[in-house]
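This section describes the prediction task in plain terms. A model, or a person checking by hand, is given the sequence of a single protein chain and must write out its three-dimensional structure as a string of tokens. No templates, partner chains or ligands are provided. The sample shown here is typical of the held-out split.
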Amino acid sequence: MALKNTENSYGWVSRLLHWLVFALVAGLLAVGLYMTDQKFSPTILKLYGLHKGIGITVLALAVLRVVWTLSNTAPKMLGLEKPVEKLAARSVHGLLYLCLFIMPLSGWVMSSAAGYPVSVFGLFTLPNLVEPSKALHALVEEIHELTAYGFMALIAAHAGAAFLHHFKQKDRTLIRMIKGE
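The expected answer:
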């Protein structure tokens, strides 16, 4: 089991980061959708705290993923014959990375603008990024929400493409991210 990527496969660090970030983001998106429809209560307040802590964890993992990706070999793209297909794949990947930064940063700004601190699992509290502002809070809340829906669409497109590679093109794209083969 290789640590680093090769020209033909993903190493275990890339695969671990990919699936860990996916699991955390999927959970955050599901909890985020749930929280917005709930009345304020001690339980919901705890859920917001957990959501913030995990969101900051995703931000840290996104930084780590970028550093790892830039310092690593990128396996060859499989089954993409046309330049437009390669452009689409690169664009979706780039937008997914962008969402990995926009979501937690907008959440942090939103909390700061509302006057609420961002505590990371009670271990430490992040500094406020902005002064409290109802107008800024409303704007960033909208950005956070719209980015969440865009993120879900990108995740669906990314997964759909992986399944297309696996079931229609019958190449190793999906298997490489699961098993590293």
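For orientation: The CA atoms of residues 55 and 104 lie 5 Å apart.
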